[in-house]
């Protein structure tokens, strides 16, 4: 296998160990027991907007459809990407995709990493095949229109490397169903026509570009968030990190470091167990790997491989307001050791309807050119109880740094 220390492949003139470079955690998805309950939590309370839906029913036999219950899942977004968070019905997904039946503890639908070009997708897939990766499928799907291939990690988590996800513009419409036929089951021959030509073709075919899914009206806007009236006193501006329990840590590290190219930022002992934190860009970590032996020690009662994942809000003030808002809505807050999240400042954990731990935070340490994280002794100390958080805190050199939220807040 090509190691992360060798640099032998040119990626647009830059020599790298592999023919692609992951730029960020692009989107993430979970398979849930009840989509309706999950939507109430993630959409009504946290503010993810529905951008499209997908019915798994046509992929199932009539007998299977009768057994699995609801078959419709939803693509949701917090910004202009067509989707940043996906909710699919677990029973229907497992019935439609034999892969999940082989990994019953995996409730992650996909962990999706963005690369910089279509060429990186095409050549990256061929390179991963040469590394004996299990490629689930490749090509281009709709809704979303992103070119991709899907390698599975050793524990069965399906990852996706993609380029070119559909953007939701000022009108709030996704692409019409009439253009969903533009999909591929294999990577294309390069170079490929630009998406602008696809849109022009749709116009020529007299497709109504405003006939796609448009966000539905939600709760009335009543909270001043940075001078904009929103339905909640906070705005999610980023997803991640994703936090996984794994049985074979060495195999997981080989996949995420050597194959996908994530950088190991820090290794931390938590209650005597060794945990690893990996990054895709300048954030301290976008993926954390915890040994399965840690589960009971930190009080995670569900059997799923996902410990939980993070959502970043726009500011410390928004975080304080988010805690009060979700507390008032009856959301269940849970206590987890701060050591699970090195490099993350003030944060709080809530339990979603399936028992996943959802971390709300506002500040993550950024890694500079040297690749070194801030020494633990120099990190901001803070009380675990939000009731003891001060109204204002001092800024650090990397406060408000990192990936910037694009587009209007609402």
Give a description of the structure.
With 410 residues, this protein is of the alpha+beta class. It has 8 helices and 20 strands. It has helices at 35-45, 62-68, 90-96, 98-101, 118-130, 195-204, 249-259, 316-328; strands spanning 9-11, 14-16, 24-32, 49-55, 72-77, 85-89, 108-114, 134-140, 147-152, 159-163, 223-225, 228-230, 236-246, 263-270, 273-279, 287-291, 306-313, 332-334, 347-351, 357-361. An 8-stranded mixed beta sheet has the order 4-5-6-3-7-10-9-8. A hairpin with a 7-residue loop joins strand 15 and strand 16. The longest helix has 13 residues, at 118-130. The mean pLDDT is 95.
Short account of what is shown:
This protein is an alpha+beta fold. It has helices spanning 35-45, 62-68, 90-96, 98-101, 118-130, 195-204, 249-259, 316-328, and strands at residues 9-11, 14-16, 24-32, 49-55, 72-77, 85-89, 108-114, 134-140, 147-152, 159-163, 223-225, 228-230, 236-246, 263-270, 273-279, 287-291, 306-313, 332-334, 347-351, 357-361.
What labels describe this entry?
eight-stranded mixed β-sheet; 8 helices; globular; 410 residues; 20 strands
């Amino acid at each position: 296998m090509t190691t992360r220390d060798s640099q032998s492949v040119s990626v647009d003139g830059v020599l790298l160990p592999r023919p692609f470079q992951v730029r960020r955690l692009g989107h993430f998805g979970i398979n849930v027991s009840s989509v309706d309950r999950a939507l109430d939590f993630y959409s009504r309370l946290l503010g993810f907007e529905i951008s499209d839906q997908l019915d798994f029913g046509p992929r199932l036999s009539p007998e299977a459809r009768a057994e699995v219950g609801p078959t419709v899942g939803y693509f949701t977004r917090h910004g202009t990407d067509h989707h940043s968070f996906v909710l699919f019905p677990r029973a229907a997904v497992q019935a439609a995709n034999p892969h999940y039946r082989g990994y019953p503890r995996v409730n992650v639908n996909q962990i999706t990493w963005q690369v910089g070009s279509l060429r990186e997708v095409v050549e990256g897939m061929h390179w991963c095949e040469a590394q004996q990766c299990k490629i689930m499928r490749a090509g281009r799907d709709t809704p979303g229109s992103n070119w991709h291939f899907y390698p599975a990690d050793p524990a069965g988590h399906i990852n996706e490397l993609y380029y070119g996800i559909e953007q939701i513009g000022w009108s709030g419409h996704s692409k019409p169903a009439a253009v969903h036929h533009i999909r591929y089951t294999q990577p294309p021959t390069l170079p490929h026509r630009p998406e602008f030509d696809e849109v022009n073709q749709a116009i020529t075919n007299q497709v109504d570009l405003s006939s796609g899914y448009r966000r539905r009206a939600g709760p009335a806007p009543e909270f001043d968030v940075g001078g904009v009236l929103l339905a909640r006193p906070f705005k999610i501006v980023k997803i991640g990190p994703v936090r996984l329990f794994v049985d074979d840590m060495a195999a997981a590290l080989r996949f995420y470091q050597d194959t996908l190219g994530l950088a190991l930022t820090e290794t931390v002992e938590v209650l005597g167990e060794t945990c690893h934190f990996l990054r895709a860009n300048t954030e301290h970590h976008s993926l954390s790997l915890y040994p399965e032996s840690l589960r009971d020690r930190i009080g995670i009662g569900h059997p799923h491989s996902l410990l939980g994942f993070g959502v970043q809000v726009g500011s410390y003030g928004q975080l304080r307001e988010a805690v009060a808002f979700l507390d008032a809505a009856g959301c269940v807050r849970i206590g987890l050791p701060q050591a699970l999240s090195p490099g993350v400042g003030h944060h709080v954990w809530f339990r979603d309807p399936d028992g996943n731990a959802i971390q709300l935070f506002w500040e993550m340490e950024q890694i500079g050119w040297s690749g070194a994280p801030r020494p633990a002794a120099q990190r901001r100390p803070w009380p675990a109880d939000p009731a003891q958080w001060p109204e204002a805190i001092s800024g650090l050199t990397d406060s408000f740094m990192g990936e910037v939220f694009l587009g209007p807040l609402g």
